[in-house]
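Loading example: each entry is read as three labelled lines plus one structure line.
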Amino acid sequence: MTDIQYMAPGTLDEAVGAFAAGGDTARILAGGTDLLVQMRAGMLKPGLVVDIKKIAEMNSIDEAADGSFTVGAAVSGAVLEEHPRFGKVWPGVLEALNLIGSTQVQGRASAGGNLCNGSPAADTVPAMLAAGATVMLQGPDGRRQMPVEDVPAGPGRTNLAPGEVLVNFTLPPRPPGSSDAYLRMIPRTEMDIAVVGCGVSLTLADGVCTAARVAVGAVAPTVRLVDAAADALIGSRLDDAALDAAAAACSAACDPIDDKRGTIAYRTQVAGVLLKRTVGIAADRIKGA
Amino acid sequence: MAKTHVSTTINGEPAEFLCEPYETMLDVLRNNLGLTGSKEGCGSGDCGACSITLDDRLVCSCLMLGAEAEGCEIRTIEGMAEGETLHPLQQKFLEMAALQCGICTPGVLVASKALLEKNSNPTETEVRFWLAGNLCRCTGYDKIVRAVMDTAADLQEASR
Amino acid sequence: MNEMSNKWIGQRTIRPDGAEKVTGSATFAADTAMAGMIWGKVLRSPHAHARIRGIDTSKAEALPGVKAVVTAADIIDFPVDTPVPLGIQDMRWMCRNVMAREKALFHGHPVAAIAATTEAIAAEACALIEVDYEVLPWVIEIEDAIKDDAPILHDFVEFDGKPSNISGKMEHKKGDVAAGFAGAEIVIERSFTTRPVHQGYIEPHACLVSVAADGKTTIWSSSQGQFMVRAMTSMLTDIPQSHIRAIPAEIGGGFGGKTIIYLEPLATILSKKSGRPVKMVMNREEVMRATGPTSGSTSTVKIGARKDGTIVAAEGTFYLQAGGLPGSPIRGATACSFAPYDIPNVRSLGYDVVSNRSKVAAYRAPGAPIGAYPVECVLDEVAESIGMDPLELRLKNAAKEGTKAAHGPVYPRIGYVETVEAALAHSHNKAPLGKNQGRGVASGFWFNAGGESSAQVNITEDGNVVVTTGHPDVGGSRASIANITAELLGIDYKRVSVLIGDTATIGFSNLTGGSRVLFASGIVVTQSTEKVITSLRERAAQIWDIDADAVTWENGEARPAGDNAGKFAPLTLVELADRATETGGPIGAGVQLNTTGAEGGFATHICDVEVDLELGIVRVIRYTSFQDVGQAVHPSYVEGQMQGGVAQGIGWALNEEYIFDKDGHMDNPGFLDYRMPIFSDLPMLDTVMIEIPNPKHPQGVRGVGEVPLVPPLAAIRNAVSDALGMRFYSLPMSPPAVLEALNAKS
């Protein structure tokens, strides 16, 4: 622990340069709500900590003319909540970010960190997947974009190349009649890591589902996009048969473990339950809008 | 290994310190600055006993490196009273016995103050969910919630 | 004696230590510092069970910055064949608990400790200590530990003539249970399990110890008893008690878990060897892994009754985990389980079982929640099977004054019946329930204790009062003591200062525990204050040149007793204090006693829950506790004890448990996955204080702190049963367990 270096560069180029040069033991610091916990637990001994919070691009929230949003990777849940428009367009993504931890954690934790930490139970990831978000990465070889679902590689691992830094998320323009929701099962009412997480994004036209994306988290080594669940919803009026089929698809997509937070059987069953509830919330949001 | 030099503002006063890069803000407050009002209950951001505000944002000081305080405004429990005048929340906690052993109290007060500054008329549910990151093992939370809501009502009344 | 007008008794005064607590200036043990201070860290066993063949600390000692090392060789040994009791502890086990001796008995068991100039160096040095372990098979769960082929922890523990992990047995008998059951019309027998749970105090153990070159030792620590700290440290280090000054810092929660020591003897030896003050603070993981949660248990309870609800026989067998060394709270489990009831035939049997988890420490009414849980659950089934209201069943069989309890004593005036009647009459009992909601009730008992206490009451030269008492304040006792003193003297509450002395400044006082602090300190503070009042009357008598018998003390002043005594203007406390020197010297008195007269406490609880049938989540939506609290000297702090115990019970019933992995390590040693109730989990916790003064106490005080944790486990379980129409026999009733049961039912 005694040979850590800390730096807080003002530009992305500086950050990427230092991060890449730092090699295996370099770590990006945004909110610190995962990194510091891991350092404290002795799980991680960084050589270089690159604090990205002074980089403008990583802290901005922009709504483009086409209605898409670009959210900097370091933006905290508390800051995102204060944006006048984001939560109206993407309530599910916002609520996912603001379910992480506590009020204190939400004052710091970022969607970028949540994704890059690589936990299969990360709360924002199912919502981002359902949203169809893409990420912008910048590395020593320049910039590239990637769908969020291609980022997680396994528990604690991502598909970012060495030296690559997550810059921002882009959420696509929203067709009218769209909304999203994120729901998770935890034993208490706050604070816990998701035992199962479910993100759903829907578009309804005259009561018929014309588009859907469904993702489940904490039930497999990575968050899973469940195309079969979305397919069961698309074209339906979100009737019981469609919901049952979608729920079954979510349960079938599960490949969970037994651990101190839940059992395989529990997670598999709950994935289906949550799907129905999450669809209901997203649908209510559309109807109520 | 050289220490990091940090210039920051704590409870309205300029403050400077040296710290190791791996030291948390909580370590710095307690060990370097003698501000032992913020407590360590868990070191992992799960109990809120280390709560402070950072640029008016409620955070856990155990989840922040001391080095990150550069140029920021930090407020701790020590800055809540003004001289010998207790903040209305502090006074109400005493009157309503919203503490027993007192170890969680600084964190709960900092968090409650942050709540009332954001939402001056919280419902019971809003209080409970805002404070969910502050653990108390002694009180069962009942008297704390009542004290926060009573204070909110008093402050509303006073501002009429 | 001053007649009590209850000007201060029963008032919700502001606690004397309050301003410090709300401004963050109160000093807890980890807040202390001294010049030259260095840091101590503990090396802990990575194995759940291992013989220690050798320890090589040479590399650690060579690390720059390391100032001292301690191993078991530095701790006084207490041979296993000779019991050495200290309170309810045994030093044979204490010396092996603070540092592993022959064996590491649990994952996290201290094996060595280092003091160095920084925490980081101390931690690094620990990693350089080489320990030669012979890893042994381990066993944690009771049913595994009592199997014939179980790995045996201690070759000196025998049961039924052979080596065993059953290290103790206790039995209470009354009447003839066989005959009793024969005469029963309904017999219900059920078995239950509970998991180990931790007291969950937010403040980790911490101490700062400074040993001077002549061995004079000062200890600041977070503890529930500075005299216990002194005594144990003395016995483990051979430093005489008179050389040790143990100062209680403010304590951030204990609930029984800080009635023993872990760090102090290590820090003492490190300080002695290094010549520097040594600070040691546990982190949360150490607290969870290596301090003492309460026992997990398996128990079987059988209750026989007649159809009219008369209980005719009851039997309970309780196995409690002790952890790596003997000493689980089987006394609490066996004695308290049937205590609220008048049952003619009872047999209550407890077994102490060692296994490779950390040694048990006391947890709020130790053993009683574990013993009461199965009994209160079976009573619910008895009530259901005869079609009787569960509260009426309890009322019908309630213990009263004159009832002989199964554990021996004949009850004096007690308030159990009143708690049940209050529950029956309360609106909570009649409130309608909604969908998927259920209601449960349960009762409980705790012994409460008296024991040794010392106090000093001194009048300041400017006429106010300083009271020094001997017990760390965990729940607001200073406020209550100030109430009592102000009441007795007839002066304003704000003129009384209450401090907690250390071992050098106050006489011997036993632990903060056993729900005894206000009971015991109330007695000695009262007697000390009465002596002071006598002295004040004598001073006035001197000044007026009359007999002391002709002087009364009322409302803070000395007055002539009647017209015959003479016409004198009253002399106030301030005036008499001002004339102390000329009338005989300092005005003050101290009393040290082994107090007696503490009587048991009873409670009855009503709990409503709502269950999410698809997710198996149970939420407590309403809770009312009814408790016989004696005179509530400070009602807010009595309510606080009731609410705090209920909250812990909710955690124990629903989500808290020690989870062990395949290597016998605790898998959830933090507040993330050791799930205690948070703000948003709980409703308001309503309390009904039933004040039946304890006639053996000057203010009628009964202990109140522990009973509240006794009923909740069963009250919540019975509520879940009511909501779901199915019964659970193990705790916690966490979502996977509930959902599994719901699936099985359908």
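Residues 124 and 173 of chain A are 19 Å apart (CA to CA).
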